[in-house]
Amino acid sequence: MSRVEKGASDASIEHIVGMLAAGERRSRRSFSFTPPENVLSPLARVPFALDLHGRYFFDHLSEFGSWSFFGALEGGRVEQEVLLPMLREATGAGYVDVRPLSGLHCMTVAMAALGEVGDQVLTVSFEAGGHLCTESLARRLGMEAVPLPMGNAHDLDLDRVEEVVAELRPAAIYVDQSSELFPIDPAPLREIVERRSPQTLIHYDASHLNGLILTGAMFNPLARGAHSLGGSTHKTLPGPHKGYLATDDPRLAARFAASASTFVSHHRIADVVSLAITMIELRDCGGDEYGRLVIENARRFAHGLDRAGVAVSAAERGFTDCHQVWVPAPAGSDPVALANRLFEAGLVVNKLDGLPGVAGTAFRFSLAELTRMGGGVEEVDELSSILAEVLLERDARGIAERVGALRSRLREPRYCYGPDDLAALGAPEEIVDLCRTMAGLHRATR
Q1: Under 8 Å CB-to-CB from 110, ≥6 apart: which residues?
Q2: What dihedral do alpha carbons 319, 218, 300, 27 form, nearest 10°?
Q3: CA–CA separation, 306 vs 322, rounded Å?
Q4: Most buried among 22, 84, 183, 339, by the most CB within 10 A?
Q5: Which architecture characterizes domain 46-284 according to CATH?
Q6: How many angstroms from the chain centroid is the CA of residue 412?
Q7: Taking Cα atoms as reference points, which of 208, 381, 217 lies closest to residue 307?
């Protein structure tokens, strides 16, 4: 690596602070439709501004009989007394591990626990909407990823799945959809496994769906036959960048724990506390409504685009059963130019090639963040109309102003505690003040 000459980069604090400010200003006049993203509540941001963020927590008291690290004992109590019980209740699982640091890290911990070197694992292929890294991760762990047979762009071919399971008797079926409109139901897979390969474990990676599952807006994979559940916590679940694993099987829980001990050192206690806050807020502040509205808003958004003349995937079956909506780039358009125009107008989209059943480039929308910001019927209808004007390259003058005006109506995240709520509850003044500062970061300006 060559040494960078002095002056070759703008390595100044002024440059960094300027970029941070520019990003904040942009976020205050924008809407993000990117499926892997959501926004933390003001209170859930607070742990990252506290001394806690730089401290370590290891549960050495229960493991070895005494503490070795003392810097985050209060945060550790939040993990043990609040977060773990809440996740056990929300998932219906007897065992939960919150040491994974992210969705991909969660996949690593889970897959290493589900199989051994030389084993075969059935996965959702990238072409069918699976995660880009699943196959390569399995290979690096010494396992072979075999694609689950699909009958069409969105559904498994269960007859062929049964044939493959009977022939291979795989160590696990790893249900991993990153790009999905109609989430795979694990119940038929469990029936196949029970008939053909009872030792095969079914793991449901719910990274994109956790906010819908844990608020009761869609089926619980554990109740539908999956042996384990997990994934990231910052997509439809509007928490920090983290992951968790849950199972009702004590032997599988022990394998997850052993795997986590190998792949995780410190699991970032500020993330843990932020996730605990998110779970409490969803319980106390209308999380069931949030989850339901995410799906309703996604369907309404798709119908609005469709009525405006925009081609939307899966129109024949109601567009979507989750937070995602897919829009193929209009024929003859330049997808890169369209994405850039949308971004400049304050509409942050996710441009992808290779979505299941879509030829060429498409835009993958999520309605989770808009819903989190309080968006409902009026906002969804207005945004679908605005997007249609840009996508169909109609007269789109004044779009940025219209988006900014709409964003100014949705000033802060909903379904959470605000600083005034905390003050009314008698929270310490320094925490209320920090929460007020974090709330101010969200507020749009006209």
Answers
A1: 100, 174, 203, 205, 228, 230, 245, 256, 259
A2: -110
A3: 17
A4: 183
A5: 3-Layer(aba) Sandwich (3.40)
A6: 20
A7: 381
> What local confidence, expressed as pLDDT, does residue 394 receive?
77
User: Residue 234, class by beta-carbon neighbours within 10 Å (0-12 exposed, 13-18 middle, 19+ buried)?
Assistant: buried
State the Cα–Cα distance between residues 222 and 202, nearest whole angstrom. Answer: 10
What is the tens place of the pLDDT at every residue in 63-111?
A: 777 778 877 888 889 999 999 999 999 999 999 999 999 999 999 999 9
Give the tens place of pLDDT for each residue, 14-50: 999 999 999 999 999 999 999 999 999 999 999 999 9
Q: 1 falls in which pLDDT band (50, 70, 90)?
A: very low
Instruction: Dump pLDDT digits (tens) for 308-350.
Output: 999 999 999 999 999 999 999 998 899 999 999 999 999 999 9
What span, in angstroms and rounded, lies between the C-alpha atoms of 84 and 273?
Answer: 11
Identify the architecture of domain 286-415 in CATH.
Alpha-Beta Complex (3.90)
Q: What is the rounded distance in angstroms from the CA atom of residue 35 to the CA atom of residue 423?
A: 33
How many helices (H) does the chain have, and how many strands (E)?
19, 12
pLDDT, residue 444, reads 52
Count other Cβ atoms within 10 Å, centred on residue 218: 22
Amino acid letter, 386: I
pLDDT in tens, 188-205: 999 999 999 999 999 999
Under 8 Å between Cβ of 37 and 367:
no
Question: What gap in Å lies between CA 314 and CA 357, rounded to an integer?
Answer: 9
Identify whether the C-beta of residue 442 lies closer than 8 Å to the C-beta of residue 42: yes
Which tens digit of pLDDT belongs to each residue from 341-361?
999 999 999 999 999 999 999
Contact (Cβ atoms closer than 8 angstroms) between residue 47 and residue 273: yes
In 329-441, the DSSP E strands lie at 347-348, 351-353, 361-366
Q: Edge-to-edge strands of the sheet including 95-97?
A: 95-97, 243-247, 228-232, 201-205, 172-176, 120-123, 144-147
Tell me the three state secondary structure of residue 47.
helix
- β-bridge mates for residue 245, sequence order: 97, 230
Task: Give the Å distances, CA to CA, from 90 to 51, 110, 192, 219, 261.
Answer: 29, 20, 27, 12, 24
- What's the distance, Cα to Cα, between the start and end of the chain in Å? 46
pLDDT tens, position by position, 277-294: 999 999 999 999 999 999
Question: Are the CB atoms for 41 and 416 separated by under 8 Å?
Answer: yes
- Cα(17)–Cα(12) distance, integer angstroms: 9
